[in-house]
């Protein structure tokens, strides 16, 4: 039984139309013009999102306020966004034969509510920001808890690929996410998945 770890935003659901304006509005006004375009927001995910935003001149109070505003926007609006086509079926089938987890920078509460709302089954547990801000640490902890012949992390950004590598697991990218396949390849993706059904096709149990 292999270990499969999936990102949430950009993999299960295209949440960029929700999160970009919420992020920009949550920023102090002196930073908002810099993120007028979605591409600037997506650029924060070249590395760990939380590491990227800490490079700004934000006070701890401003950082906390921004995180709360993003969480609030996610809670209010995430359920209105449908999952990526085929994702619900792929998660159910993969989770039936493999160890399937979600490792994300989003909130465990938000992601759990989304999975329940859209009846996405098969996920054993969601590890979000409540379990730590470092994806490297969360991925490595799961890898150590579940020794397996193969451990894969599937994400949609260059930061995901680099963090998976750093955690000692195989990075895969998705073709429908926030960063283009060529960028994911350059960041270390070993495979680019073009449809969620490919998760099941690649499962050793199939």
- What share of the residues does DSSP label as strand, in percent? 5-15%
Number of distinct beta strands: 6
Could you report the average pLDDT, rounded to the nearest whole number? 92
Q: What kind of sheet is the major sheet? A: 6 strands, parallel
Radius of gyration, taken over Cα atoms and rounded to an integer in Å? 16 Å
Distance between the termini: 11 Å
How does the overall form come out from the CA principal axes?
globular
List the helices and strands and how they pair.
Elements: E1 3-6, H1 16-26, H2 29-32, H3 38-43, H4 49-53, H5 60-77, H6 87-97, E2 99-103, H7 108-117, E3 125-127, H8 135-145, E4 151-155, H9 158-166, E5 170-174, H10 181-186, E6 191-193, H11 197-202
Parallel strand pairs: 1-2, 1-4, 2-3, 4-5, 5-6
Helix pairs in contact: 1-5
How does this structure look, described?
The structure is a single chain. The chain is α/β, with parallel strands linked by helices and 206 residues long. The protein contains 11 helices and 6 strands. The protein has a 6-stranded parallel beta sheet with strand order 3-2-1-4-5-6, with helices on both faces. α10 (181-186) links the parallel β5 (170-174) and β6 (191-193). The chain is globular, with a radius of gyration of 16 Å.
Descriptors:
six-stranded parallel β-sheet, 6 strands, globular, alpha/beta, 12% strand, 206 residues, single chain
